[in-house]
Each structure stands twice: as structure tokens, then as C-alpha cells.
Amino acid sequence: METWINTLESALLKLFSDYQKNRNLIITEGDLECLIFSYAKLRGLPIHSQISWFKDDKKSGFELDLTILNEEKLSVEKFDEIDRLIYDFNYPHKGYFYDGETIGIELKFIRNADKFNHNILCDIIKINESIIPSKVKNINNGVYKISTLDTTKFYIVLGFKEERLLKIALSILQEYIKIHLRYREMIKIFLFCPNCSIEI
Hints:
Largest sheet: 6 strands, mixed
Helix content: 40-55%
Shape: globular
Strand order of the largest sheet: 1-2-5-6-7-8
Radius of gyration: 18 Å
């Protein structure tokens, strides 16, 4: 897990540096997602797009932009008899099942101030108030046999076209973190713009 974290953060810092040298590198949120995927994959990280993280009601899930997971613990086959003995519950799946170390990544690229507050806070609220509490319940209820809170991390990456927007976002996020963030040890937040990058 520590190797994944170090490799991902190295990839992010390289991307931020490249963006500061070439502002045309990222013009849309799709660009940002593709570039993070590419920089991570080139460094050997097992990264995937739009993986579902299931709610504790077993009926629906949350999708994260990107997820790093241990592919040795990923099953794309139907459950065999051994799986059914180990995971004796009706678990939702999209043609695969995963129980292991995980890093979830949410991202935004903010070009202007329209819907600014919503865009800045929506990912951290989703992770802090929905995804992690569901993961906690699933762990406590025995849904996962391998996953723990210590082997589950989240990154929020926010890119900004202008430093002015980054500074406003930083203030909004710091206020939310101070009052509402319950799972601080599980969440890292990176902000970047053409002039700087910040980890909070």
C-alpha cells in the first residue's frame, strides 16, 4: 500500500509540474482523468476507471473516477463454490468482485466560478459522508474478509485554470475539513493550477 501511495503521489506531482509548463495539457476534466490514468499506469499502478463501490444496502453503488486495486484479488469470473463458501452473502457485482487494498480517486477540473461551491465540495462530501461510512458498515458486517480501513485510501485531485480559483477553493475546503471531516487519515486532497500545487 505504501508503495502505491508513493508512486501515485510521484505521478501526481509530475503531472502538476507538466501542467505548469504547458497549460494546454489539461483543458477538460476528461483530460485530467486520462492523464492521471496514464501517468499512474506508466509507473506500474493497477488503475481502473469507473469502478463501483457498493453501499451497505447491497443494492446500488457509488462510482469513483479512478481506482487502484490489487489485481491478484480481483475476480472477473463468476463465483465458484469456494467463493460462495468464503463470501456467504448475496453481494452485488458488475461481473467482477474485489476484496483487498484500494485507493479511490475523485477529480475535478474547475475552469470558472459557475457552481463553484458545489463542484469543490461534492467529492469530499461523497467520500466522507457516504462511501467511507458504507465501507465501515460492510467491514463491520463481515462483507469484506480482507479489506480494512487501514488498506483503503482516497485521493481528491482538484485542478484549476486560475490560481484565484484555487485560493477560493482552499478556503472552502479548509472550513469543511475543520468542521465536518471525520475520516481525515483516509483522505488526501491535492489542488493544482498553472502556478502552484498544494496538498491539504
